[in-house]
Amino acid sequence: xxxxxxxxxxxxxxxxxxxxxxxxxxxxxxxxxxxxxxxxxxxxxxxxxxxxxxxxxxxxxxxxxxxxxxxxxxxxxxxxxxxxxxxxxxxxxxxxxxxxxxxxxxxxxxxxxxxxxxxxxxxxxxxxxxxxxxxxxxxxxxxxxxxxxxxxxxxxxxxxxxxxxxxxxxxxxxxxxxxxxxxxxxxxxxxxxx
Length: 194
Hints:
- This protein is 43% helix and 13% strand.
- It is an alpha+beta fold and 194 residues long.
- The chain has a single domain (15-192), classed as Transposase IS200-like (Alpha-Beta Plaits).
- A 4-stranded antiparallel β-sheet has the order 2-3-1-4.
- The two termini are 22 Å apart.
- The model has no long low-confidence stretch (mean pLDDT 91).
- Residues 11-125 form the Transposase IS200-like domain.
- It comes from Halanaerobium praevalens (strain ATCC 33744 / DSM 2228 / GSL).
């Protein structure tokens, strides 16, 4: 029995938490050039379709993105990003077949609290995975852009920092303080594991 896919909710200005996972629990990134190439694809897609990237974290076997769309649907953005990266990866490593595990996960962000929680969750992902003990030590995320330790126009920090009156010290404290909203953190984690 062929069941139709449920259409994703989209409207101009919709924000999403997006997760793309590697197929068969494999790797999406094998070396530094792979991470750089993925970020280049994000830049090119952003230039073509004009969206705001609020946060990212590139893990070895999955990617977290926090995206606010403008006039282009989320599926169009993610199709471009995942298609071009899969072509690059398969060509580089002489592979065939699917790089990504099925469809990407996306959850629409409907309010300020969830927007903040997703941003925090994304930046703490390497800490929770025991890769680093502080989020600023993980170079493959947008966290250091938020702390102004890395300059990059790929990420738009203004929306999230506006909740903290652009004060990066308060933002850092919010992000790194344990159990700010444990229930919401657990909800986001459960959604990402589906």
